[in-house]
Design a protein that fits this description.
Helices cover 41% and strands 12% of the residues.
């Protein structure tokens, strides 16, 4: 299907995505503040990656969410669903006003992605399981000779789960070069900094040991993000891991690298400061 960024130069695409990422971050902060619940930190750290996917890279059709030949996206770190919901709404899967219903009873926007939400391919959130499902979906595409690519975003705390590495081994066995895993390496998880809980470095060497192609980027440099995603899609013969170094809470200075914003909504005065900063009014 036609992409929003078709017929633009690379620099124009980057500029468009940088501005769109600000809009995505605005809705993340606004919906979590409205709900008084939700995960801001990991949503903000992955906002640039998610914006590039949904507004440039993914071959999708919001008017036909279950189109058989669409690319698939799985948010394996499902608690960061506010960033996914913001992208889906802005991409046209459902009205933007629906974002105000985050985590309400009966809403299509629950605390983790659910398959009844337009644009969500699978329910996810039990850490590591979304990645395993991604391998199955990619293998299905290979066996059925489909041309779609499967993209999945994992958290750096999530990759402490053993099943992630079982899935990584399976992806190598079946040469799933239609699979792209993006690790949102913001160095923090629910209980603190990852290095103090269960160090996983070197992450890149671990994936390389499972015969994955690894691309290392600054996850907030949109030029690097876009180039890496294009390179990953074009890679043949092996699955690809994009290791994106990011900052938890990126985009709002009072939230950056602050553990309390892993799953805490902003206070009213913090909300006002955050919105002004995102809008460039601070």
């Amino acid at each position: 299907m036609q992409h929003i960024a078709d017929k633009l130069t690379f620099d124009q695409r980057v500029a468009l995505l940088v501005e769109k990422a600000k809009e995505v971050r605005y809705h993340i902060v606004d919906m979590v503040h409205t709900a008084q619940s939700g995960h801001i930190g990991g949503s903000m750290s992955s906002a640039d990656i998610m914006t590039a996917l949904y507004f440039d890279i993914l071959n999708i059709n919001p008017k036909e969410p279950r189109w058989a030949d669409r690319d698939r996206f799985i948010l394996s770190k499902g608690h960061a669903c506010p960033v996914l919901y913001a992208c889906l709404a802005l991409r046209g899967y459902f009205p933007v006003e629906t974002l105000k219903t985050l985590r309400q009873f009966g809403s299509i926007l629950q605390g983790h992605p659910i398959s009844k939400t337009p644009g969500v391919d699978i329910s996810s959130g039990s850490l590591g399981h979304g990645f395993g499902q991604s391998i199955g979906i990619a293998l299905s595409g290979k066996l059925s000779k489909k041309d779609y690519t499967v993209f999945t975003v994992l958290g750096n705390g999530e990759i402490q789960e053993g099943l992630v590495w079982e899935a990584a081994a399976a992806a190598d066995k079946y040469r799933l070069d239609n699979l792209v895993a993006i690790v949102d390496d913001n160095r923090m998880q629910n209980d603190g900094f990852t290095d103090g809980i269960m160090p996983m470095d070197p992450i890149d060497k671990k994936f390389e040991a499972f015969n994955w192609e690894v691309i290392r980027i600054d996850g907030h440099n949109m030029r690097q993000v876009l180039k890496a995603l294009e390179q990953a899609r074009a890679t043949a013969g092996s699955p690809v891991c994009i290791l994106a170094r990011t900052v938890k809470g990126k985009g709002v200075s009072l939230m950056e690298n602050q553990q309390r914003f892993h799953g805490k909504p902003p206070e009213p005065e913090e909300y006002d400061i955050a919105i002004k900063e995102i809008r460039g009014e601070a």
